[in-house]
Write a structure and sequence with these properties.
Layout (H helix, E strand, L loop, with lengths): L1 H26 L9 E7 L3 E2 L5 E2 L3 E8 L6 E3 L6 E4 L3 E5 L5 E4 L4 E4 L2 E4 L3 E6 L5 E5 L4 E6 L2 E7 L2 E3 L7 E4 L2 E3 L8 E3 L8 E4 L1 E3 L5 H37 L1
Antiparallel strand pairs: 1-4, 2-3, 5-20, 6-19, 7-8, 7-15, 8-17, 9-10, 10-11, 12-13, 13-14, 15-18, 16-17
Length: about 240
């Protein structure tokens, strides 16, 4: 009898966790380069009732994965706003010396370095007498010394065999892990690789309408499962009364 309570409780808990993930997606719908999360569930072991019948024992939370599909491009006309059109990450070094990966391309020149704002440097020097810095589609960083065009360096992109294995560290950044695999270098615009677009930022890939529809569906599923708990409770009470009689 109590197994029905446990089965229903696992279903209710699963739907609550799903709504939590969906709500987090919606809350970050306007966050630059945010990647939508999706939660997967796994069935628990079946209980054998007789030779021909088995009963499920509920579900459990499986892997929560991020969908790394690129978001839409939004024009800003700021030459130091860059977006990756395709797969890949920028590699940055934080002030503490840690290596992180991000798709956030809001760049700036700080202390003679090209940096991703509030995150880290790209290891490209920008001398004080250089102005009008911009990035070309193949990642080449250029500036002007007076009227002379100067090449300052080249931004390279990196990718992973399993991006879902990356560790989230905040500020639109990720840290490499064994699960993600060893980062491999991508040369922008070569052999069909991603290109770097100056004057654009990448928006989140959250589909607000689909996320809201999933929340409504999860809420309805939660209500259905809760009714099964009520039914199981009524049956338990009836059985208890019959024993007393």
């Amino acid at each position: 009898m109590f197994s029905s309570f446990y089965t229903a409780a696992s279903g209710m808990d699963a739907q609550l966790k799903k709504v939590e993930i969906l709500s987090q997606n919606l809350a970050n719908a306007n966050t630059i380069t945010y990647k939508q999360q999706r939660i997967n569930f796994e069935e628990l072991m079946y209980q054998k009732l007789d030779e021909n019948m088995k009963a499920g024992t509920g579900v459990k939370l499986g892997q929560t994965e991020r969908i790394f599909k690129p978001g839409a491009m939004q024009r800003t006309d700021n030459p130091l706003d860059v977006a990756i059109q395709g797969n890949g990450f920028f590699k940055v070094e934080t002030p503490e010396g840690k290596i992180l990966y991000t798709r956030d391309g809001r760049l700036a020149v700080e202390n003679g370095e090209l940096v991703v704002k509030d995150l880290g440097k790209l290891n490209i020097k920008v001398p004080s007498d250089i102005a009008n810095v911009t990035v070309e589609e193949d990642g080449t960083v250029i500036g002007y010394k007076g009227k002379d065009k100067v090449e300052l360096g080249k931004i390279k992109l990196y990718d992973f065999i399993n991006p879902n294995g990356l560790k989230i560290v905040g500020k639109n950044a990720f840290e490499a892990t064994k699960e993600a695999g060893k980062p491999f270098e991508i040369e922008p615009k070569k052999d069909g690789n991603a290109v770097i677009l100056a004057g654009f930022i990448e928006k989140s890939n959250v589909n607000i309408i689909s996320q809201m529809m999933e929340i409504v569906a999860s809420q309805r599923n939660y209500e259905l499962v809760s009714k099964s708990v009520e039914s199981a409770d009524q049956i338990a009470r009836m059985a208890s009364q019959m024993k007393k009689q």
